[in-house]
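name: query_chain
kind: protein
chains: 1
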Amino acid sequence: VQLVESGGGSVQAGGSLRLSCEVSGITEGTNCIGWFRQAPGKEREGVANIYTGNGATHVSASVKGRFTISYDNAKNTVYLQMNDLKPEDTAMYYCAAAADARWLGTQLGFLGQGTQVTVS
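structure:
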């Protein structure tokens, strides 16, 4: 399984970015795909996740109403649409996949290399 993130960059506060995570080698072990973020000196934080089978989603309270997660089955790609970005959203964003949301970001799942988001 490979997870390739793209779409990060620098944006001013109030702006938008869309992150993409292309998933190759999809198996039952990648039923759930999600995004984490980690800022320097801070704990890693789960942002959002989606079950690719039924489309069920979960979005962290810290970004709810601003971030949306979606999945394009034809492209095997998960998107994180980020609107109304704030400086506190600045972090490295990682795509993760696992059989269940509980295992995202653990040794029972898969993790991408990350893409940097900077909001000024």
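note: Residues 101 and 115 are 21 Å apart (CA to CA).
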